[in-house]
Amino acid sequence: MAGAAKDLLRFATAGSVDDGKSTLVGRLLYDTKSVLADQIEAVQRASVDKGLATPDLSLLVDGLRAEREQGITIDVAYRYFGTPTREFVLADTPGHVQYTRNTVTGASTAELAVLLVDARNGVVEQTRRHAAVLALLRVPRLVLAINKIDLVDYDEGVLNAIAKDFGGLARSLGFADDAVVTIPVSALVGDNVVERSTRTPWYDGPTLLGHLESVPVVGPEIGAPFRMPVQYVIRPRSADVRSAGAPRSDELHDYRGYAGQVAAGTVAPGDEVVVLPGGARTRVTAVETADGPLASATAGRSVTVRLDDDIDISRGDVLAAAAAPPRVTDELDTTLCWLAEKPLRPGARLLLKHGTRTTQVIVGVVGERLSFDSDVPAWAAAPEQLEINDIAHATLRTADPLPVDDYADIRATGSFLLIDPPTGNTLAAGLVGTPITVTP
Questions:
Q1: pTM recorded for the entire structure
Q2: Across the chain, which distance is largest between two alpha carbons, in Å?
Q3: 8-214 and 227-321 agree in CATH topology
Q4: What percent of the chain has pLDDT over 70?
């Protein structure tokens, strides 16, 4: 008999250059037996060639670094592994300052982030930058992994000092104290990564893997009001039925379904929904998948929804809870994470992709920019233009009204992309509202 399905945790890693992130990821993969034998043998041979007595586990993931050095554009490396308890999708983001924008990509769907610091250096500017990005993207849980604890002689005082320093930063960014877990690790020798270390008897918390296996994975989208962008309208015609070799069926001929992924909340037959931006109201008559009807579907589930009334619905429309709908507007106050080499200036005409809808947009005022010049990130004076990796407020006007929520309330309908019309390249990740309030 097949075993019960294991739940899935999506998490991201972030850290400064040389904090040991590649070694930590390699250690997780190696100690959970998530790498093939030939990969391990290749790492062992390469380590011997480098004169090392033990395998250099960073080599399991450092092919990504080599590709960047060759000029090959790599955004985020996704790695998949599992234990008897849980499956994991790890978004491995680069540490260099110029790749901060990649952290935005990796953390955008994460339910947890592992933020590394070097025990010898403590909290540095890139730590503050990454923490601010994670707060901006509303990643609900953080692990502060204080790496290379072996290089400070497993000193508990070092851990406490760094944890106190980071605690103040995390609180200033809006993280609750219980949202941050601090773990002393040595990725090189394996202390507290998968196996508990006898060299840190003063630490009684979980190992990194133990925490990843036990942390709750129910995200805030589950309890939010229902939202589902329509991906595809299913309306078979009699000609389609005959060409498929199926008998003519009035039920199939009259079938109208609206397919998409539930972005937030739960939907069930009998629920009253509103179709936006149009505003028509109706009730759900069925929630279906290829395997049959469902009693309900929650965030993350791809389904086909059938409705009580024949309403004009197209790809890009949003089905939403009638009792708590998003607002419909063509004027957006946003926070932009600028990802492109070319700068953004007010007045730019771009494309905006929100859910399954793409529309034209004009950039209005570029407002305050998030600065990392002090120990605590702060909103600084508005720049004349946005440069790569800048995070700033901006006003936008869209050609079509959009059903949006504040990103702080519902990530899926509060986020969007800005796209370059001539090339189709992504220029910015956008968040509706101001998801992060920095307090001194």
A1: 0.82
A2: 77
A3: no
A4: 84
